[in-house]
Amino acid sequence: KMLNAKELVSVVFDMLREIAQNINVELINEVDENTKVYADEDKLNLLLLNLVDNAIKYNKEGGKVVVKARTEKGYVILEVSDTGIGIPKEHIPFIFERFYRVDRSRSRELGGTGLGLSIVKHIALSHGGKVEVESKEGEGSTFRVYLPQSI
Ligand code: ATP
Ligand code: MG
């Protein structure tokens, strides 16, 4: 199905708005109104929900979450950036594995199971796409999901 990316992001932001407000994290939807993405609506919603949930949960007081989208070489690239704690380089190769969590004690406090990113990866791959991450400890992270513009 052809989906409006900005609308999808705003639905996900609405689902997480209270959690974000509680820790004073600002949610910014910078997706262009015209960006269309070809995907299963429930699955793309779940993918974004997991990325934005992480971007809020591993953020800092007064931080931001920005979602952008662009089109490049036949792919729609959805980008979720945060100003949070970042991910130490040595952990990055493992974060998409099921149940993998960087800081066990901290993660336990925050709740969750460590499945979120494995679901994100599975959904991206099942759409013929991929997911990438760039992160700097103490500064924040950017997750990029590539989805083919059409099938
Ligand atoms: P769940 O998603 O099941 O609630 P989780 O958030 O711990 O639990 P994942 O979403 O799979 O699990 O993320 C795996 C680990 O990667 C997290 O425990 C966290 O350590 C790290 N991580 C994920 N996203 C971010 C982020 N945006 N900033 C910093 N660390 C992150
Ligand atoms: Mg998660």
Identify the notable features of this structure and list them briefly.
151 residues; alpha+beta; five-stranded mixed sheet; two-stranded antiparallel sheet; 4 helices; 7 strands; globular; binds adenosine-5'-triphosphate; binds magnesium ion
Structural write-up:
It is a single chain. The chain is α+β, with helices and mostly antiparallel strands. Helix content is 35%, strand content 28%. It is built from 4 helices and 7 strands. The protein has helices at 5-22, 41-57, 104-110, 116-126; strands at 2-4, 26-29, 36-38, 64-72, 75-82, 130-136, 140-148. The protein has a 5-stranded mixed sheet. A hairpin with a 3-residue loop joins strand 6 and strand 7 (140-148). Helix 1 (5-22) packs parallel to helix 2 (41-57) and helix 2 packs antiparallel against helix 4 (116-126). The longest helix has 18 residues, at 5-22. It starts with a strand and ends with a strand. The mean pLDDT is 95. Bound molecules: adenosine-5'-triphosphate and magnesium ion (MG). Residues 50, 54-55, 58, 82, 84-87, 95, 100-103, 107, 112-118, 141 line the site of adenosine-5'-triphosphate. The site of magnesium ion (MG) has 5 residues, from helix 2.
